[in-house]
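Progress narrative, work stream C.
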Amino acid sequence: MTPKAFALPGSSSRSPSPPAAAPPPLNAEEKKPDSLLLHVRKTLGPYCRQIVHNRYFQLAMFVALLLALFLPDLWVIADRPHNDDLDVLLTLVGVLFIFELLVQSVGMPKSYLYSFFFWMDLLGAASLLLDLSYITQSDQQVGGDTVSNNVIIMRAARVAKLGARAGRFTKLAKLLRFLPGMGNVDDGAGTAKLISSKLITALSTRTSCLIILLVMIMPLFNLWAYPEEDWSPSSFVDIMETTYSRAPSRFKLQLAEVTSFYEDKSYFPWRVRAKDESNVDPEVADALPWLSPREAPSRMSNTVVFTGGRLIVEFNFMSPNQLDAWMNVVLLLVVMVLMIAFSLILSQSVSSIVLKPLEQLLTQVRQMANTIFRSVTDMEVVMKEDARDDRSDQEDSTEDSSNFGNETQLLAKVVQKLAVISEITMNKPVLDAQTLQNLAEGDRAVISGFQGTATHDTEFFDHGEEMENVLDMEAIELAQRAMMENAGLSMELLDSWNLNPLELDKARNHVAAMYFCSSHNHGVEFDSVVMGNFLSDAEAGYVKSSPYHNWFHAVDCTHAVYRLLLMSAADTFLTFQERYALLVSAVCHDIGHPGLNNGFLVETSHELALRYNDKSPLENMHCSKMFELVGQARCNIFSTLSKLQYYEVRKVCIEAILHTDNAQHFTMVKDVQMLYEVNAELWDASRQLFLQEEELCLAQEAVDTLKLPESRKLIVNLILHTADISNSMKPFRISRIWAWQVLEEFFMQGDAEARLGVPVQALNDRNTVNRPFSQVGFIEFLVSPLIFAALRILPQTEHLAVQMLMNARSWQKQWENEGKTPPSDNDKKLLNERILKMENKFRSCQLGKTPERT
């Protein structure tokens, strides 16, 4: 069933309701308006949204807004003679404003129509009418009967201009959404950024509107105040009128004297003429009409006319008007700077107070969700598709908040995962105290042999640069195969789990090790002579008297690593250096091993335990000896690596070898279980694809998960540790040989413990240990938890688990038939039940179920 089948109350998907009486049918006239409007919206809506969000259209509208704001004042500053060309430009700008209004109304009717920005756009478009001269006649002469009336008219005109600019500034407020932290946020930005963006946009818009309203409203209070103006123009008219009526003979002289008063003024009378030119006093007629030697105004709107009883005096106010226009431009720029500055200040304040703490919290939630449940990506896609269907006409709206619940919905799924993970990490140890208490003494002895002090290294592994694969791998592989054949080894044997280094001589073991470490298996170039020296010196570094931890075990472990890398297609998720480091680490992972475990070294205060503070003394010693070998020029197999590559390889080698300490075993099991649980759906879906090698490319999501640095580090450690204890997963003939070898080494340590008078570890007493029974316990409590966890993320290892279970049955039969004291029927039943339980867990792993939940 699709997600849409579950609809919330009030949503578009409703459950069926009982049939109701059908309403009377509408006639064609009643249907037509709604259907026509709906048809227009459906047809033109997508195109309108595309236009609105087109960057070129947005740029054009921004340029149009700047033209609407500044052109009227620039025309005054430029002293254009008329406004005809300005009217054409402003008319085009008005058409663009109206077009934008219509496009947004059709494209985003639910989020835009009748919204705040709709009314602001409408006001901005209407404000253009105040600057169109063919509507307001703003380029005609300004006149009046008195000076006070003229001043009020001028002030009212100025307020009208500011009002027109303010109307357009409301459109500028809309452009604030393009500032950092404002406007639309991508779907994947998260709740914190969505909330912060909308909060910042709301505050910035309202702050901008407040600034605009103050700019527009504050001058209004001066309209009714007593005008503080220069009364000289009216005095000029009064003086000339008095002279005209009382001393016409002095009119010309008086005109020159009064005119000189304006020589240092930015405005001046440029023409004096009689009201009635047909009835002018003869003594005045010679002086009229009078024209100033200074220029006449080009723009008619720069002429201010003052009239008297007989005279008309025209003043040139070009300079004051230009200064006024400059001040308007500066005012517009200051308002713009204030809008942007306060918006950015608000943005920073909201970011520091709200966004950063909330984003840190919710980002951790999102990252945890992606880490804990990788398949949540598919859920998000489904959720977004459903949400997109419900808001097709407002998908890009600034008012859209449909993504606010993403993290909440993810958390609902994540919590289910956390319940399982917490069971693994906290509530359910691999072997808890109750389980240990219920075990027989022999089983506890097996586990105690694996106890030790664990070391925890949580340092993140950086992938680094990969080496370019410039080698001719085919030629190298052919040469290696020829060398193998000359040594009497077959590829069928090497590419199977039937190889037993104990059955090979020294020369063939050396050749086999050379083949496992060959460049065609990892892609890193090295000198074959140097590699030969390294292997020979590594062999010499192993203690020959050790029954188990000797050179043969090193070759056997390297072979197991080689097989695991090959069968799990590790080249798809591990780097060249990681695979090279893993193979080399297998060669030296037990070099210098004295045949005594860490517990014995600590108990006896051995030199190694003192040197390494009781923390994995053997494993630390193996790492040290390995890099002592590499430090010699004749054995420096890392000489072809760059400094950075050597650092990465050294880090991988140390990590992998230290994790062969059996004290790390149960922690590793938990880590692998955790990696599976947080991506359970992904692994289960990719399981069959992994098992089919030709379909491996289809399991890309699982491979991408394995490519993560922490995943790669875990896989590297897992492969080496699995190879180290892989004897129980090999054919029973080989598995039994190695079991006898390791038990003999345990017994030799037990003999040494008895001689030194220290407690003899239970598994080391040759007189009490039942060898077949101990191997069943070893498989049940140590090997099976690891391989069952491993096959969930590396399904190709499944056949190893099958062989392990077969070996457990073989050990069961040998225990029943070859023991000194035949077991009772009840003991047989109990052991059989334990093996059945392992087999059931294996089947659960095959079905993609967690054993604890089945």
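Work stream C, second folded protein:
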Amino acid sequence: MNKLFTAALLLVACLPLSAQKKSVVPPKKALTADAFAIWKEIPYKAISPDGNVAAFTINPQDGDGKVVFYHLKTNAQDSVRRAAEINLTADSKYAVFKIKPPLLQVKEMRRQKKKKEDLPKDSLGIYSFASRKTEKIAEVRSYKIPEKAGGWIAYQLEAKKDVKPKPEEKKPEEKPKTLPDTLKKKEVKPKPAKKNNDTNGYTLKLKRLADGKEVSFGFVKDYTLAKYGQGLLLTTSGNDSTMKAGVYWYDLKEEKLTTLLEGKSKQKFKNLSINEDGTQIAFVADLDTTKAPLRYPKLYYWKTSEPKAAILADETSASLPARWIVSEHSTPYFSKDGTKLYLGVNPQPVVQDTTLLPEEIVSVEIWSARDSVLYTQQNKQLDATRKQAFAGVIHLQNKKLVVLANKDIPTVAVADEGNANVALATSDINYRWSDFYDPSGFNDAYVLDLSNGARQQVISKVKGNPNLSAKGKYAYWFNLEDTTWYCYSVATQKTVALTKSLKTSFADEENDTPDYSSAYGVLGWTANDAALLVYDRYDIWSLDPEAKIAPVNVTKIGRQQKLIFRYIRLDPEERFIDPSKELLLSVFNEDSKQSGYYKLSLKDNKLTKLLMSDHRYAVTTKARNADKLIFTRENFREFPDVWTSDVNFTASTTKKLSDANPQMKQYKWGTVEIVEWVSLDNVPLKGLLYKPDNFDPSKKYPMIVYYYEKNSDGIHTYVAPEPLRSSVNRSMYVSNDYIIFVPDIVYRIGYPGQSAYNCIMPGVTKLLSLGFVDEKNVGLQGHSWGGYQTAYLVTRTNFFKAAEAGAVVSNMVSAYGGIRWETGLSRMFQYEHSQSRLGATLWEKPLLYVENSPIFFADKIETPLLLLHNDADGHVPWYQGIEMYMALRRLNKPAWMLNYNGEPHWPVKRENRIDFQIRMGQFFDHYLKGAPMPEWMRKGIPAVEKGINKGYSTK
């Protein structure tokens, strides 16, 4: 052995240096849970308005990250650690952001039970693009910059900590002098200094970035900057000397402070609003300093030409219905042209009798079968209902208030950024009773005259959601019942069908639920409401709202070439489509799964191909004032790093900016490909097959089948090594020599479980025939709807060696009458119209509910089953998991159930997600690879050891 070892060393020494270097390259590692800590993500991406600097964060999944500023002209890069809440100024000169304290430091101090006020605070960072230097300001609570102007920043400081005086040396005690009581002076305690806190407000600094000049305001409760940087609007509780409590306007150009309303410290001033040009201001004030339960907020208004703000609307306004008030929960806003002020109003709320003791209050819920909304929904919506405001408008020229909405017609949408004199009101109030089983619902729609509130009904009981065109000339909607686009002319009061005569479908052609097919959607309106642009499955269509011109397919080739075109809105403030400009379209090839970008000219409907590849492209953001953009591209083997290009994706301008995960080269990964087969229902299907990097077709691999509905279009999705909350991590499993199969599933109404079986089993059989899948070691994994399908499959076949099912519906009979506690919704709609796809009530087809319920066939299960169902699941009641667990326990089947206390539909807390991935990995490794059974499976973890002993040990 020693001679062989010595000979081997001599042989290496004789090799050329290049060969020696090549021979010592370490082998690639398999991904484990340890990789979670080192894998990065890029949650923030932006480009400066002038297109010269890209900014993006590179953050670990749990820990301190950084923001990178990439100067595109010079390729220079700077970074600042722990940056968050990043904004780039409109003048392209600065980036402003919070700097978080080190996470480890915060955790350590929390372990030491430090008080919240003693924990380290955020700082403010101001990075100059010109100097490439960062100014830091300590202990900043919040900051704001003008949306469309540079030069200024306003920020609030944290409260200063109280510093306890050092103990002084004690002087020798002197014998007190005695005086007659009449000559003794009464000791007067000094008034305690006012402190910065949530009640009093905090110090606000206004900083001019060019020269650093600052203005300070004390005890500020709320503040906002005008859109174009004309001024700063703030409210303060006052400092009793130089500034009284009230609302103030600081003109940034004149550097002048104006008092808009002076009040008292206990009065509330909120909901600040500034118009587009900074000449008008509105806010809401509650001037009552008592604790009366019924409040009477007042809407104040100020123009720069006026000395003070004045009441514009309150409970005494003649135009308000009796016992209505201005809403304190709605922020008023101006129309873009400044001629109108929109506000919220509401009836006086019902208030509790404050003289009653707690034991004197009757607390009972009365559930009526004729309640328009389920009581459980009412409970979930209680806060929103109490704060509900109804739209009103004030015409500022004559100060006329018009109430636009009420309890019967609650929803109002304005047009032309509030400039139009019409609005659209919609209501589903008359049809809400049936929402608990029919989610598509009905709507009534009305055109409102903003000058007097007069209503003209557009449509009644339509299965659709009417909207208003950009300029307000038309109301339009997609009718789910006849799958047709309609348009109503405000001027002529006539309705026309826009697509009824076309053979092309504008509704989901692949819908396999027992409900109406939804529309593919709207691109938008062209200038002056000339045309409505809508999507079919593939193409973009231009529709004449008057139906005088025949519909035009502007992309033409989509359906023919199976290309799905969709518009990318590069300007987030775009209100209509400019037909003189070229549109950037995303494109996806339904057959090849390639994606990329095309360019469309609406002048001549010319399509130009810009880019197409085996990637997924996303998050395209354009510089506001330059033809530069940033985007991401990814596939299974490529992390979605940040790229830049011009708007034509010219090769010479396209380059990669980030490299967030260079360590990926050290790990074994995998490949993905499309596989095809035919279901037992004779439907052609596709699926994704993930193989290990070192795949050997002569070997036999264990395989896990994961599914939900359709996944094959996601072939180019990167799967980071991270603790996923509900599914196997495809990258990690193939790195550990598993094969992962993800089949598409289509459904027959009434037979969702059988449909899953009919799609999945022939797909598995197809793969077995290729010879590289170990037919004795195939597992199943699914969550929620996938968890249900897993539970169903193991009642139909004992082929699978092991299965994990999360948040299962095990009993459709009991689940049908259950509640989705996250929303308070009844579960009935899911079975009659939605994902569960039974298409009938329990009383119409009771056998379907039984036949599709795994619980009734649990005695057939031989597959070891790992269940996950959390006790705070708001989507699938966790008693469904309990029913399945108890059935398996009673039948003495191999089963385990994980319940992460307080977690919802899936584990959210990172440590819980890591734990779930480790346990699921151990479960499959044991059954599919023959690894030793861990302690938690072998013996269980008793309640007294919960949170102490994880039971991962396999010894």
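The chain has a mean pLDDT of 94. No further action is required on this item.
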